[in-house]
Design goal:
This protein has 237 residues and is of the alpha+beta class. Helix content is 16%, strand content 30%. The protein has helices at residues 4-20, 26-32, 38-50; strands at 54-56, 64-66, 112-122, 127-128, 136-140, 149-155, 169-173, 183-188, 192-201, 204-208, 217-219, 224-234. The strands form 2 sheets. Strands 3, 4, 5, 6, 7, 8, 9, 10, 11 and 12 form a 10-stranded mixed beta sheet that branches. Strands 1-2 form a two-stranded antiparallel sheet. A hairpin with a 3-residue loop joins β8 (183-188) and β9. α1 crosses α3 (38-50) and α2 crosses α3 (38-50). The longest helix has 17 residues, at 4-20.
Length: 237
C-alpha cells in the first residue's frame, strides 16, 4: 500500500504526463505536494520506483514513466477532518475483530481512558508518514493529564537506552512545542517521521537517539515539526 504522499505524487505525475507529454519538474512536484524540500520528492520517487509504479528513463531529462496505478480498492482514503498526526505509517498490527487481540492493550475496566491507536512510528531510521485511525487502547487515567492524546506502536531500536523497545506502544500528548530533553514525535520536511529526544541550540534542532549505534541528526528550525511528546508507554510480554 502506498503512503498518502506517494499516492498523491503518483497521480500528479500521471496527470501531468497525460496533459503535456513530459513528467513534471522537481520544483513542480514539491509545490504540488506542499513540501519544503526537493529531498522529500527524491525519497518519494525512489519509493514509487522500488514498488514498481514508475520507471526512470535513461539519458532523458525529467524522464519518468508511470508503469501502473494502484487498484481502486487500495487507494489511500481521504484525509479525515480535524487533528490527525502526519507521522504514522499504516495502522496498528492489532485489529478489534482479531481473535488474538492482546488483552493487555485493550483493557476496559474502571480507571482507564480509551486512546486511539494511530499506527506505527519509527524509533530508528525515519519512515514515510501516513495517518490512519484504527482501534483504541485502554490507558490508565492517571497517565493522561489533560489535552488530546494518541498512541503509536514503536518500530526500531534507536530509543532502547530510554527504555523504549521495538513493539512498545507509546502514549503521546498532542503538542507543537517541547523543551530540551523531551522525547517527541518529530516530522521532518513534512515527509519523514521519527521518535527521538529533542535538543535545541541556537537555530539548530537536533533529534537525538538513545542508542549509540545511531547518530544525532541536525536540522534547521523550519525542517522539524513537533507533533506530540511522550507521556508513557505500554508493553506486552
Amino acid at each position: 500500500m502506498l503512503t498518502r504522499k506517494q499516492y498523491e505524487l503518483l497521480l500528479f505525475i500521471n496527470q501531468r504526463i497525460k496533459e503535456t507529454g513530459v513528467s513534471p519538474s522537481f520544483d513542480e512536484m514539491k509545490e504540488a505536494l506542499d513540501l519544503r524540500s526537493k529531498s522529500g520528492i527524491h525519497r518519494l520517487i525512489t519509493a514509487l520506483e522500488e514498488r514498481g509504479f514508475i520507471r526512470r528513463l535513461a539519458h532523458r531529462a525529467r524522464a519518468l514513466e508511470v508503469v501502473r496505478l494502484p487498484e481502486t480498492s487500495s487507494q489511500t482514503p481521504p484525509r479525515p477532518k480535524g487533528f490527525s498526526p502526519s507521522v504514522i505509517e499504516g495502522g496498528s498490527r492489532w485489529r478489534p475483530d482479531e481473535s488474538n487481540e492482546p488483552p493487555e492493550l485493550s483493557p476496559h475496566y474502571a480507571g482507564t481512558v480509551d486512546v486511539p491507536v494511530l499506527g506505527r512510528i519509527a524509533a530508528g531510521t525515519p519512515i514515510e508518514a501516513l495517518s490512519e485511525k484504527g482501534n483504541q487502547v485502554g490507558v490508565p487515567a492517571d497517565m493522561i493529564a489533560g489535552g488530546e492524546h494518541y498512541a503509536l506502536e514503536v518500530t526500531g531500536d534507536s530509543m532502547i537506552d530510554a527504555g523504549i523497545l521495538d513493539g512498545d506502544v507509546v502514549i503521546l500528548r498532542r503538542c507543537e512545542t517541547a523543551v530540551n530533553g523531551e522525547i517527541v514525535v518529530a516530522l521532518i520536511d513534512d515527509v519523514e517521521a521519527t521518535l527521538k529526544r529533542l535538543r535545541k541550540k541556537g537555530n539548530s534542532v537536533a533529534l537525538e537517539a538513545a542508542n549509540p549505534a545511531y547518530e544525532t541528526r541536525i536540522f534547521g528550525p523550519d525542517r522539524v515539526k513537533v507533533q506530540g511528546k511522550l507521556v508513557g508507554l505500554l508493553r506486552r510480554y
